[in-house]
């Protein structure tokens, strides 16, 4: 058994050295190696893994759980696992990250700042640690067991750290529930990967991040300025204005970190993402530091996003003053708003309502829709039932094409053509009726019956009344 | 939808506790006053839990993963969270930008149409796109379009966010439907997975104050505070302005004290204007001026925006301190350096123009008004109206006309009030034709004057003896509006005095046509007397009789139509169900059979109605006959049909 583990470990370190070498070369070796590993595993598959564990604390990793995704992957073979995706997961999610400010390059760079370069740290990780679990979680599993071989040795903080750096939030949280004490950089990495993770849906990211931050505070760790940036971005993605402000204030008051412009920017992000644009503007105006171009640009983008034209223009003006390169050439001037009672100070002097529509108007447009007035005479020859005249007229009104057109008229926007498909021939009376309808509503009605297409327009049909 | 009635912030500490406001510098930053982040988070999660959204980290802690319910097809009707800003990417972002461009070009119809069309396309617009269109519609006061778009997106399942709610509440408040707005607010509080924003309260309080519901507004302010929002100076300012209007000076001062107690020294300048007005109301001029000095002195900590300055300016100029107001106005003009510092806006000029007019210095008022362009402010319709009104009421019609011309040059659209003002001025100046011209222009430009405006132009024309023109306008009014009896009576008097009897009769006929109007006996006598002069009184009698008859006919037709629709419904149901020959025969048979009793009925009727004029009765009895035949046949038919269908069932 021990020899087997030894091989494992050496295998890992071999990996690490290979990977430090040039990439194509290592790839080649890598595939060979993984094959070898696979062989090893298939040999050891049936070994009762539990027997390795001697730790007093029952460890999740010591139980082979079929539902555990890592164990599940075990069957997939190691060769498959060594895919490029696995190699740099951070990078991918990084590029695809849903940035709230699509217009803002500045803001993107802010996000970068908030997010320590994951790839580099991963490389470092290779060098230092001999890849604990890069290609194969099983691998890591094994190693874990080895480390647990000594009694009362919980999963180490370093492992947690490496998990965080790879963005394996699930695993990291699992570790933490098992009692691994996370330290500050771990939490920071975890918060960041929470914010970047593609696995979580948007609202959840922030929630999870905030929950982690709460845990962190409970553990008595002292967050630093970088952590607060991550917390603010979590607040932005969870759209929690209140907590954003609470954390922002606790940063100054409890932890004595004086907020930099990027923190203010973070708060503006929180407000903007939650739709509080007016409040964001007030916040910027009340800031004790002079707002930079980036701040105004963020505000402008959020105003644009939420459709506040006036605020957008205002922010843009201020932005151009600070950074004239952002000026937009030949911009369409904004239409003045129709009602400006908020600014024009003439309260009680607006008497237009007294001169407008206090009395009801007569329904002129309803009159226009009356078909009989437009010359429609029901042609009851097409009703073959032996019923009296009135009932025949009534029966004509319920022909399916008319019902379809009536529904089409009330449920589509004006002026668009309507297309009706009917499986039987249109009757002569309906043909007339539709001609008149097309004239009244001013739309093109295209009716297909089982013989041909009829294009009704302006009271005429394309078939020339012959079909 | 709500799983439980929400209990709001029960854990909330009282606001007076000092640790809530640790440093006065950042006081205004805080929106909500929770004591700890845990409380805030708890409240937020409670709101979300109503939508059955998992608590955080839950999905990560899968210690017993097999117990997690696997639900591959979630209920599509389940309530959802509004979209997050990050969804605005790719095609949806392109659509957003396209629609924003349309809004910039002020092609709102197209923007709204595009939004609707893309709802069911493969690129669904985000809630942000819908909000942008609705905000643009609100900005142009197109409330009907806004509401219909809102209804559309709600039906299409676009989940509203707080901005959507604010826009809708704003629209309701602008339409003076504060009750609807409050109802909507209640819905937001009860069901939405997020909290209202301070802007929501600002909009609501302003709407309530504008509609003279100050008590409800005060209640809302208290509600806002109990919900944990920090006291907002802008909300307090609206309330204080409302109390100034009431007028309730003590209330104003009490509100200010409350705000001061909660915030410490008030650094937002907006409240100072209304505070000064409160002091002036109480006759405490000295305090008012002290307050003024505190707000505008050089090293003041109070931040004065344009709105804040305007309200102070207004307080000064309305309370006999116009010299001071002029000084302040100069200071504001100097301080103004857009875009960094905005101290002057449209309102400042309006207040000054008002002030000059009140002093009788109309030339200065116009001069101030013209200065607006220098500071990149543009007057709107209301400011033009105000100045035109001042000028007209002081007999300066020529200047008013200049201003009116300027409006069209500057692209400001005159509204109904502008035209009525110009019309009044022209009538006062004995230029009735021009006045009528203004009225015509108003109607042409698609504005919708009401009865008051119509009566004004008709009165004016009648006074100068242009009755023909007056009749044209009256006819127009009858066509477009529901006209009151009094307007008819006035017109009848005028016409009979002028001896236009044909017109009189036509008008009476018009009046009788409208069911909601009735010719009073007084009026009838008056018209008869007028007709008697020419010996044409019998014409009126004839007219009235004809009217009576028509009414009877109409009643008849209604009854007939009601029955006919019933029968046909029964018939169609019957005929589709009945397939056997037997049944068919039966229906045809009784159709012939019923004619006889029907004729008898009709004869009875004609006997009873003999007093009517010969020809008219003939026509009527014909129609009545037909009607009765119809009625009886249809009734029988129904019964028969019922029988038939019963048979069907038994068979």
Automatic annotation (TrEMBL), chain A:
Occurrences of domain DYW (ranges): 375-467
Xref: InterPro entries: DYW_dom, PPR_At4g14850-like_plant, PPR_rpt, TPR-like_helical_dom_sf
Listed GO MF terms: RNA binding; zinc ion binding
A single GO BP: RNA modification
Composition-biased stretches (Polar residues): 52-65, 82-138
Region Disordered: start-end pairs: 51-138
Keyword Membrane appears in the UniProt entry: no
Protein keywords: Repeat
Matching PANTHER family: DYW DOMAIN-CONTAINING PROTEIN, PENTATRICOPEPTIDE REPEAT-CONTAINING PROTEIN
Protein name in UniProt: DYW domain-containing protein
Organism: Nelumbo nucifera (Sacred lotus)
Automatic annotation (TrEMBL), chain B:
Region (Disordered) residue spans: 42-80
Gene Ontology BP term (one): seed development
Keywords: Coiled coil, Repeat
Pfam families reported for this sequence: PPR (PF01535), PPR_2 (PF13041)
Residue ranges of coiled coil: 533-562
Signal peptide start-end: none
Renumbered ranges of PPR repeats: 126-160, 161-191, 197-231, 305-339, 345-379, 380-414, 415-449, 450-480
Membrane-crossing segments per the record: none
Gene3D superfamilies associated with the record: Tetratricopeptide repeat domain (1.25.40.10)
Stored PANTHER family: PENTATRICOPEPTIDE REPEAT-CONTAINING PROTEIN (PTHR47937:SF5), PLASTID TRANSCRIPTIONALLY ACTIVE CHROMOSOME 2-LIKE PROTEIN (PTHR47937)
Name of this protein: Pentatricopeptide repeat-containing protein At3g49240
Phylogenetic lineage: Eukaryota, Viridiplantae, Streptophyta, Embryophyta, Tracheophyta
